[in-house]
Automatic annotation (TrEMBL):
<dbReference type="GO" id="GO:0016491">
    <property type="term" value="F:oxidoreductase activity"/>
</dbReference>
<dbReference type="Pfam" id="PF02317">
    <property type="entry name" value="Octopine_DH"/>
</dbReference>
<feature type="domain" description="Opine dehydrogenase">
    <location>
        <begin position="77"/>
        <end position="225"/>
    </location>
</feature>
<dbReference type="InterPro" id="IPR013328">
    <property type="entry name" value="6PGD_dom2"/>
</dbReference>
<dbReference type="InterPro" id="IPR051729">
    <property type="entry name" value="Opine/Lysopine_DH"/>
</dbReference>
<dbReference type="InterPro" id="IPR003421">
    <property type="entry name" value="Opine_DH"/>
</dbReference>
<dbReference type="InterPro" id="IPR008927">
    <property type="entry name" value="6-PGluconate_DH-like_C_sf"/>
</dbReference>
<protein>
    <recommendedName>
        <fullName>Opine dehydrogenase domain-containing protein</fullName>
    </recommendedName>
</protein>
Amino acid sequence: FGGSLEFAEILKKKCVNKKLPIFVEFECMIYSGFKNDSGSVWVSGYKKGLKMAAYPGKLTNFALETLTKVYPELSSADNIIETGLSNGNSVAHAPILALNAGWAENQDMEPFLFYWQGCTSGVGRVVEGVDEERLALGKALGIQLFSEKEMTLKYYSYQGAHGKTISEIYRTNPVYEWDYAPKTFQHRFFLEDIPYGMVPMENLGKILKVKTPLITAIIEIASRLTNQDLRSQGRDFRRLGLQDISKEDLLDRVRTGI
């Protein structure tokens, strides 16, 4: 979330008086897969209907024309805030791992499937609660977001995912059949998805006056589990000069790049 904003700020400082490139963000990685060895990967899934946006947003259609030559099923989002808020990894990974902490630390005895076994109905309700906070952020900005349930079905229903709850959908998704849980808390589910997903969402909530108690709780729990201050490592809006920005100015910033 907000990678284009941070990268653009760095380049502005390093490349004074030079034209910046067009930045493009996808909702998520278009492929699901695993590294086999140093020279090959196994692609286990392909996300249909993925959205993208450019920064500045006024160049999104231009970028889409180029990218659809490679990925013809791509569609455009309103802006990079929409794509940033549409990354389901930030909603699912950290809550599931945090709520299975004991099992994750004891996998020498019995490894477990992260989604199929880890996302029980109760854990799924917490994921849905985090998702409700994410949707509230979008609503406050006038952005109509898909729920995590809708997104997962959009990406994977053609491969067999189905259900009414997030637990049911995750546990019927064949793409997740081989997704084993991390055996350590020093893993991207915490070290990436919280600093670069949940922390910016928490920051955005403060700007928009939207409460994010579950997001805040997961950040705190994961920081304790990893023995790191994940919030201070995150993409803080103060570092981007956005701490006092209004909703209207934020939307204008991502549209114009200025």
